[in-house]
Amino acid sequence: MTRWEHLIALCPHLSPVVDVGADHGRVAAALGAIAVERQLHRVAGPGTWVIADGLRPFREVGTAIIAGMGARKIAAILEAGPRPRAAVLHAQDDPGWLRRWLVRQNWRIDAEALAIEGQGFAEVIRVFPGVETSSDEAVFFGPRLIEGDDPLRQAWLSHHLDLRMRRIRAIPPEHRDAEKCQRELEFLQSCSRTKTDPQQS
Fold first, then answer.
1. In Å, how far from its chain's centre is CA 84?
2. Which CATH superfamily is domain 3-131 in?
3. Which end of the chain is more exposed for a tag (fewer CB within 10 A), N or C?
4. Tell me: the pLDDT tens digits for 82-110?
5. How far apart are CA 143 and CA 125, in angstroms?
């Protein structure tokens, strides 16, 4: 599935559904959602469009879909409110940072999905208000991805393992990031073994 298909599939349909930064409007049209764009010239399709910055024009939001932008921008939109009853998110740059921020803001990570995008993976996250009890490492990489059976899970784990191994080889042991990289590498290795080693099943 593509990132757009995951955004649609993971939407819990708590009305009103608001797609922030709707771009071409494909997701909003598929869901019958309100499409939001900051500038009039970016409106690109039929349906209900609102020219606004984020969620602020709305008195209440059932589901917020915020995708295709940076993690810190997504956090700023959610922080400005109003607080939705659910959100489906995709951060282009730093999903681990976004998950940690969400957990600190009392969001529970309910579901996650992967899509191939460019040379890496798009990570789509669905959250509801609540307490996330996963470890900090699991939150960073995606607790539902770690424990789940997404078809791309093993390739995604291998991608992150390779990144950490290359990083460890590139920095001296006394570098301030060396311990962190080693800890993340060991965590990912344990996650990979949990799903692939028959003795672990």
1. 16
2. Vaccinia Virus protein VP39 (3.40.50.150)
3. C
4. 999 999 999 999 999 999 999 999 999 99
5. 10
